[in-house]
Write a structure and sequence with these properties.
This protein is an alpha/beta fold and about 325 residues long. The chain contains eleven helices and twelve strands. It is about 40% helix and about 15% strand.
Length: about 325
């Protein structure tokens, strides 16, 4: 499916949803035609999952997360997995395990009393984990996390590609000096979005200037402080990429205090596509964190494995689509 997605110029999630005919998802005929033509061109033969059988007494997928924070990501992932499970007459059971090993083991022990098909284990932060032992006893998929030896399939956001997409969007808008306000240090998402930023600069023959990169912590205050520091440089940027939307919110406040217009003086792009992004003025251009699609893909992988269909890829990274609004370029009349 990844080869089909590359040839068709769409995401893996789009290919999967079109092949499965997922309820409630609509695509144009042109997009559908591109996907099926790409599949035909490489001789891809789709195995319909309706032909795969799951054990009659296994009707529950355990969905275990380390925490349910105020951020919506794991709730969106749960909804994606639940929707996919319903297509196969399966139920999703949610549990919060926390970080303590004893608490985690207790949650999985209770799960084991159910007619389990398998387990999805998700984390709020994208990170490497030491999998609980229960994940080696049941067919399992890691969601928004991964383990060092890649023995358990994992589904992650394509943060590095997303960082590159965001930066290249600013370059296409004619911006030549692009600042970057990063997230919390030591976090996978921060590392990968910075890599994407640097890749985009290199691919467009633009020099990397460490003075244009400011540390952050995902909060509006970091976006405010970072923007003030960037604009105080002898050569300030004409665009700022904020590694999440909340820092972009603080960046907006700082630029307004300095009497600068968005996007006329400084273009701004975020990451996450939080609900507030569309209501910022101007509306914030950003990228979607695809947790709904990630949840659906994780459930799909689990159902495939229990139906006897093994995948070649032990780690899937899901595209973070760009949402173009008004903070990079002025809308045309």
């Amino acid at each position: 499916m990844m080869d089909v997605a590359t040839r068709a110029g769409v995401s893996q999630a789009t290919v999967s949803l079109i092949f499965n005919g997922s309820a409630g998802v609509r695509f144009s005929e042109a997009t559908r035609a591109k996907v099926f033509e790409a599949a035909d061109s490489i001789g891809y033969r789709f195995i319909r999952r309706a032909q795969s059988r799951t054990p009659n007494d296994s009707k529950v997928i355990g969905f275990v997360v380390d925490e349910l924070a105020s951020d919506p990501w794991m709730s969106l992932a749960f909804e994606g997995a639940r929707s996919k499970a319903e297509e196969f007459g399966l139920t999703l059971m949610l549990a919060v395990a926390g970080e303590e090993r004893e608490q985690v083991d207790d949650v999985f022990e209770k799960m084991a009393s159910q007619p389990l098909l398998g387990l999805i284990y998700g984390t709020i932060l994208t990170r490497r984990v030491v999998p609980p032992k229960a994940l080696t006893k049941w067919p399992s998929v890691l969601l928004n996390c991964y383990e060092a030896k890649h023995k358990i399939p994992s589904v992650l956001p394509a943060d590095m590609v997303g960082g590159r997409t965001a930066t290249e969007r600013l370059i296409r808008a004619g911006r030549t000096r692009i600042g970057f306000i990063n997230g919390q240090e030591g976090i996978d998402a921060s590392r990968d979005r910075l890599r994407g930023y640097r890749q985009a600069l290199s691919s467009n023959d633009m020099a990397f200037d460490p003075a244009l990169v400011r540390p952050g912590n995902w909060e509006p205050s970091a976006g405010y402080d970072g923007a003030r520091a960037l604009m105080a440089l002898a050569e300030p940027p004409d665009a700022i990429f904020c590694a999440n939307d909340m820092m972009a919110l603080g960046c907006y406040d700082a630029l307004r205090e300095l009497g600068l217009r968005i996007p006329q003086d400084v273009a701004v792009i975020g990451f996450d596509n939080r609900e507030i992004a569309q209501f910022m003025r101007p509306a914030l251009t950003t990228l979607i964190l695809p947790h709904y699609e990630m949840g659906a893909i994780a459930a799909e992988i689990l159902i495939d494995r229990t139906g006897g269909l093994e995948r070649q890829h032990d780690q899937i990274k899901v595209e973070c689509p760009l949402v173009d609004r008004d903070s990079v370029e002025m809308p045309r009349d």
